[in-house]
């Protein structure tokens, strides 16, 4: 039975599905919910040539706005903490997935969390696969599956809850 549930959020549809899954688990188990967003700063070579990348402040502000929007939709009786990881803790490697993995691992350990919930696509990405290898059955995923579009219709996506990594809930 988890006491603390960590949910990783970014600006994707998959993360929204992961948030719903994390909220459902936290409500069912009366656990504390922690939301985290990793604001990976742009590379140091930004500004060279014609490349237009967001500034560090813009990335952090965007993460804070994402958290505020997520908090607005949560139940009032749920114990929630949230934070945005930025700076040195979010820039630990050359690749964005490596930075996110390291930051999530640190947040999981420092917060004494029992469960990590992440949204995925139809197939888990590099971050999710790495976290599953590292944390094993303490990672729960929520899958997003595309709905087939009819002729002339725009493609729609519908959330489908994925299988939990462990059947102990």
Which terms would index this structure?
alpha/beta, Rossmann fold, 4 helices, disordered C terminus
Strand-helix topology:
Layout: E1 4-9, H1 13-29, E2 32-38, H2 56-72, E3 80-85, H3 96-110, E4 115-120, H4 126-135, E5 139-147, E6 156-159
Helix pairs in contact: 3-4
Total number of helical segments?
4
Number of individual domains: 1
Report the average pLDDT across residues: 80
Report the structural category. alpha/beta
| CATH level 1 class label | Alpha Beta
The gross shape turns out to be: globular
Rg, rounded, reads: 17 Å
Q: What characterizes the major β-sheet?
A: 6 strands, mixed
* Record field, number of beta strands: 6
User: Spans with pLDDT under 50 lasting ≥5 residues?
Assistant: 153-169
Q: Strands across the major sheet, in which order?
A: 3-2-1-4-5-6
CATH superfamily, called what?
Answer: HUPs
Helix content: 25-40%
First-to-last CA distance: 7 Å
Q: Could you say what the CATH architecture is?
A: 3-Layer(aba) Sandwich
Strand content bin: 15-25%
